[in-house]
């Protein structure tokens, strides 16, 4: 474990190669050398901020935090760049910009993608890097890092060495820039190296720097459910708030879910996007049939050609997406909405999904990635309230459970008045029926999942 407080100069900007940050390595000989593929040579992992090639969606100076890696499965003689969301640069001819953990999930069963993190300049952050070398012959190595005590990225199931004499022998902190057109400064303070997690200092940052607080922001919202036909197709609504148009990537997945051990998936998803007046904006069946180049450039393209995706720049307002199967089949589907312009003044405000809530793996599962340090989020599971809207077979008594990215339960609720009644009422978002369920939570930056089920195993529309 190597921890240091870091801060970038307010005008920090480097064009080109810019390796900076915290590094742990073993037998590192210098740049431009490929490690032997048999795991007998060397390895290096650097936690850095750097813009590698073209900007990624939402990226700006000083670049997303990520791992710069030299390891046996390396793609380039000058190292690979591992991002929290699972993307890797440079491009590989066989798997593109997918990381090995995304292209071969059975080899990396414990990997979970996380939101990318962009630090502000002129602000102190506590960065901490952990590298655990694997037991030779096993894939139990791990590289992970935290910023201000929050886990930002985790790469488990790694095989980075084949001999036990290859051990971490150097911790390094530095700033390399090529080329730099101004005086660029980066500060480091309170450096600690240890064999267990260190964490931030109890008193916080060593030199306070007043900076504006980033607004609460959703970077990605998603819903997974059993999608049927007629009134039981997958229906998701979202709202864009603010005054500026926002570019979104929307996809409907089915076959890809089998790679995550989901059975009974939707074979051929389609998408229809509507505005708040009910007017159809666009549709898609197979994502390569339209916008293929633009979707590929986002590095979020579906893995299966029959899955559906849409790129759209939308004005503030309410929108609805309907996911169904092209031939009327049923199955489990996943609907995702990504914010490709998180720096815009407008924001994704909510996701609402209506569908048939069943039991077990066919419960309604919603996910979100939040991008600011403190986010007040309300999760509602409605059933009885839908009856007044003419919905037949509404879920009689919903339960909602909120989980963090490590599958720890944050909160659960059956009937919303049982807890947090005053706090929920103060938001103005309380349901009309006492049997509906609500959780109000303040969430740190990260990934979260809300699961809706029926009490005592009941099923229905929720």
Describe the structure in your own words.
This protein is mainly beta and 462 residues long. It has two domains: 2-193, Sandwich (Jelly Rolls); 218-461, Jelly Rolls (Sandwich), CATH 2.60.120.380. The chain has four helices and 29 strands. It has helices at 100-103, 292-297, 384-387, 421-427, and strands at residues 2-8, 20-26, 43-49, 65-70, 80-82, 87-92, 96-98, 125-132, 141-147, 150-158, 170-175, 186-193, 218-227, 234-241, 246-253, 269-275, 280-284, 308-314, 317-325, 331-339, 347-354, 356-357, 364-370, 375-381, 398-403, 409-413, 437-443, 446-454, 460-461. The strands form six sheets. The protein has an eight-stranded antiparallel β-sheet, with no helix packed on it. Strands 7-6-5-4-3-2-11 form a seven-stranded antiparallel β-sheet. A hairpin with a 2-residue loop joins strand 9 (141-147) and strand 10. The radius of gyration is 23 Å and the shape is globular. The two termini are 45 Å apart. Residues 203-216 have low confidence and may be disordered.
Radius of gyration: 23 Å
Q: Tell me the name of the CATH class of the largest domain.
A: Mainly Beta
Give me the count of strands.
Answer: 29
User: Low-confidence segments, ≥5 residues, pLDDT <50?
Assistant: 203-216
Largest sheet strand order: 18-15-20-13-23-28-25-26
**Percentage of β-strand residues:** 35-45%
**Please, how many domains?**
2
Q: Architecture of the largest domain, CATH level 2?
A: Sandwich
How would you sum up the major sheet? 8 strands, antiparallel
What helical percentage do the residues reach?
A: under 10%
- CATH topology name of the largest domain, in short, is Jelly Rolls
* Average pLDDT score: 87
Structural class designation = mainly beta
Q: Sum up the overall morphology in one term.
A: globular
Number of helices: 4
Distance between the first and last residues' Cα: 45 Å
